[in-house]
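User:
Note these tokens:
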Amino acid sequence: MTERADKGETIRNTAADVVDFAPYFVAHSGHNDEDGTMMQSAQELRYQVYCEECHFLEAEEYPERRESDDYDDDSAHFYAYNLQKELVGYVRLVPADEDGEFPWQRFCTNLLPGIELPPAGQAGEISRLMVRRDYRRRRGDVLSGVNTADGNGPVAGERRMESPQILLSMYRQMYQNSLKAGVRYWYAAMERPLARSLQRMDFKFRQLGPETDYFGPVAPYLMDLRQMETDVGRSNPALLAWLQRPDGNNS
């Protein structure tokens, strides 16, 4: 059973038992870990994916084989580990800059008619979302670990769904971090097949503008977390309960 408080508060599930939708992965969040090892591992993964695998960035610009940029210091960072404590996924949430703008706005300059953007202080941009290559082996797997070749949604406890589990574990941490930080909206620049796959899980990102070249052909999207809570709460209350349940091992 779910219930919703007034004034846009989150939906809460009253069931005592909550299904684990990512049993094979543990996610952690952090701005910058104390000894820097988590961030270093993430930047090494970013180098492997963005420089060596996808060639979005020039490898010779990163002689230490660690990809970083000016957004790292102000962003919130999220890491996913397998049960062997190996880093298998990463994403960050980038806040607006001092001018109230996000990285996507440097590349996606045209908006569809009638689009109004939310207050910059209530939003963050999903950035550098990636899953390690050996967890993207099925045809249709994209960098985020979501499979765009079929219509499967999140199924807890199935090893064949390992890559979506990685994505969900990081989204869970990012969602809980957003609640604490007063972030209601997520921007994302992504491919249409990925947006459709997320929509099937009721993570309904709304397209804001036409496709452009922003580390590959992508379009800008926006999701309202309050609307996501309503949609997921109706279609999959167990998933919403898991997203909202604090977990001492995953923070």
In short: The chain has one domain: 20-243.
